[in-house]
Amino acid sequence: MRISGDIYYQGEWHKGESEGYQALDPASGKSLEPVMSAASEVQVDTAAQAAAEAFAEYRNTSLTERAKFLRCCADEIMNLGEALTDRVSAETGYPTARAEGERARTCGQLRMFADYIESGDHLDARIDTAQPDRQPLPKPDLRYVNQALGPVAVFGVANFPLAFSVAGGDTASALAAGCPVVVKSHPSHPGTSELVGRAMATAAEKSGMPAGVFSLLRGDNAVGARLVQAPQIKAVGFTGSFKGGMALHKLANERPDPIPVFAEMSSVNPLVLLPEALKDSAETIAKGFVGSMTMGTGQFCVKPGLVLALEGAELEAFLNAASEQLQQTDAGVMLNEGICSSYDKGLTGYLNQDFVQVLAQGREAQSEQGFHARPTLLRTRAEDFLKHPEIHDELFGPASLVVVCKDSNQLRSVLDTLDGQLSGTIHSTQEELAHHKALVDLLTAKVGRLVINGFPTGVEVCPSMMHGGPFPASTDARFTSVGTAAIQRFLRPVCFQNFPEPLLPDALRDSNPLKLTRVVNGTLSQEAL
Amino acid sequence: MRISGDIYYQGEWHKGESEGYQALDPASGKSLEPVMSAASEVQVDTAAQAAAEAFAEYRNTSLTERAKFLRCCADEIMNLGEALTDRVSAETGYPTARAEGERARTCGQLRMFADYIESGDHLDARIDTAQPDRQPLPKPDLRYVNQALGPVAVFGVANFPLAFSVAGGDTASALAAGCPVVVKSHPSHPGTSELVGRAMATAAEKSGMPAGVFSLLRGDNAVGARLVQAPQIKAVGFTGSFKGGMALHKLANERPDPIPVFAEMSSVNPLVLLPEALKDSAETIAKGFVGSMTMGTGQFCVKPGLVLALEGAELEAFLNAASEQLQQTDAGVMLNEGICSSYDKGLTGYLNQDFVQVLAQGREAQSEQGFHARPTLLRTRAEDFLKHPEIHDELFGPASLVVVCKDSNQLRSVLDTLDGQLSGTIHSTQEELAHHKALVDLLTAKVGRLVINGFPTGVEVCPSMMHGGPFPASTDARFTSVGTAAIQRFLRPVCFQNFPEPLLPDALRDSNPLKLTRVVNGTLSQEAL
Fold first, then answer.
1. ipTM over 0.85
2. Which of A10, A334, B79, B414 is most exposed, with minimal Cβ within 10 Å?
3. Is residue B343 domain-resident?
């Protein structure tokens, strides 16, 4: 399929009216064809208006129609074939296996939401039947069901060109909820975004969805800002940097009508290594840790960026094994020049501190072209860490900082200073874990996900996933951006009081035609009334 | 029980360090004893810190312990006896029956949340079991459960001195969730607030809850602002004016770590009267409408403030009946001087417009003392309403504006210009309603609750209630402040990955010791694993 550099709204492809640019292959630094045009302010406004117009129709589509549309999106993405995975690799430096794996996850998410909305569980249907004779006042018939919130703006992220971009988790969950989506694609992978956009556009058309149910824009931060300020937009999904997420959050809250921004932003994902676990398996843990920290050139939001451990022979054995492992690791390609230079700058900041030592580094890059990063393992003492907040922030890329603690109390003090996190991990024996209840409780209060004897990278897509966490991991700790619960961001309940039964939404009819599990007078029921 | 004028934090009563004031009886305008002291900035900070310290213990209390505490709160409020209802009447002008009814609702809410958390449904427990042999990667064991968000600031509201104040819905739902509460009580009813605070303090002590689980502050807007800015506070519950809610929302979002503000603010609650319904029962509807608009001197957030109807003989019959009814209605006491003067000023604004006519007014106040409002029914034409946004806003008090529309299209245009609403109401025959699908759809998109052939006042407390709505009805349309779903504002999910089964929270243990209904591998189950 040809990449034109166009953008998509009102059900058609258009040349963007703002100045265009070309993507770069980050492995070589070379430009990729074609020139990608960018949206003007008027084009952003038009897309937002088209989404609002589509909403009136799309919110009333049946769950079956919507599920069919989502499955068709997945099919059309697969139909792009190698043109898609090749372009992903060209624009990100990711190997084919990663591109294929991410494509599978993306299509899996679309199909998962199709299945999930067909179950109707997201509707949270509730019925309280009337009690006309109740004293002192009669009780009316009340029925409650979730409805779509409104058009959603979705921002693509650099490090997941498929799974958190044009047809990623935010788009899939918003469309599943019944909300039209306007995507502001990420500038790093415009060709990938267009290909996926073409698949989405074809799927919308084939499924008979209203023009405006899906739009694909491209451009700089001003395009994103304009979109978040558009009065038709009712929520924002974002994954990316703290700075970017907070800028959108500010804009959204300064609107005359503030809207929620679900931004997944910043996390160092502390990894706590307890001594008994290290005694048993220092080498295995070291191997897993280095793999997790360097996977995807460390460009994961759940990369373990901070290791907390007690001083002693067990820790030194672990550090030796990890250092050895890291020294055999190649430099990796980073996604773009900005991310690469941030990594270099951040790392230099650490290296300039006399209280931070380099434990080990991976191999240097073989090429002088493109954007490469050298994996690096750093070490500091807890007392220095506590004194220096400048080394507490996330360093996006293949680096991790080991904080050596004198005892459990000091380790808990370090944890206590940390901000909210997407994930926290503990390596320990079961007996050891049982003795560290305070540590577990403290870490639980800081994170969205607690991992035992594993690594935080590899975020499973399922009902039990929580990908989000206390600020600044995300702007709202109450919501996940991965898994079926992600749909809850884009729904709002409506209560129908004394509504004529034949005119109620199907989810609330006496006969329960959708075969939902509903809360009837406070009790779960799958029956008709 | 003696009212001291003190405030409560760290499990003790203290004299407030800021300048005090006396409450007024709004019926007479006379001061009420004693002088009520106000919190200093240091006292606000101390209360917030005490709440954070209590959180570490309170969040880990069992559901049974927490339910017992909530029931004990209800018992202690009842134990206050007539001292409480008398003080409510003195501080608000509400008759005894209203004070008693609101007390019943308040205690009912506390007991409802006790029952609800014992069911464990709010935990939303989910389990996805491991698949160690899955290709290409093994699936870990993942378990998801809601946990308490953190200390919550609750703002009491003028018009519900019990049900939306110290021990009202926000407090009950936050405590049920496992969140300590710091109340900033409303200046209009400080004595009522203290009495309820004393009941809460006694209940906390009797139930062995940590000091700091509940605090009661008093003071001006600066006290509220300081509380919302306290880093220990993680969410805010507010009911009141648009101006007040938005001020808190702004403060909360300008914090280094933004927190959610659940503010229920502003709504005109449109009432649509279709001709067939009026033909059948103009008089009955008129009587119900006047009762709803003047109940509590019109000081309800769901007072029907706007009536939309088609011109014609049916409407004139309704208006005649409503006018007659209103003329027989007494002036009512308003809650305080500020609310009374806002009503007078707002009403004068309407009366000064030559496109607004007075249809009828209630009787004038008999007393020159105190704060009284005269019920007023106004009329305008749809074309004038559409031209004049200055008459679109809520007028808090016993007034309502009838907008006369030429036809259904014009009626929908008027609806289309309205902001988000807590409620919308339609009076119609079932046949008529079936013919107005576009109207129903439009109104549904604007409101949190849709009422058919009833009146919006009287908000039932139950699982199916939605009290909230699109902005500016509330700051976040996704949440209700009434009913069991209100607890969702104060919970966040945590995911446990490969956690040793014996150390998991009870809600996630294989044996299902809490007998919860859980989502196990995507399917609801009440069984052990």
1. yes
2. B79
3. yes
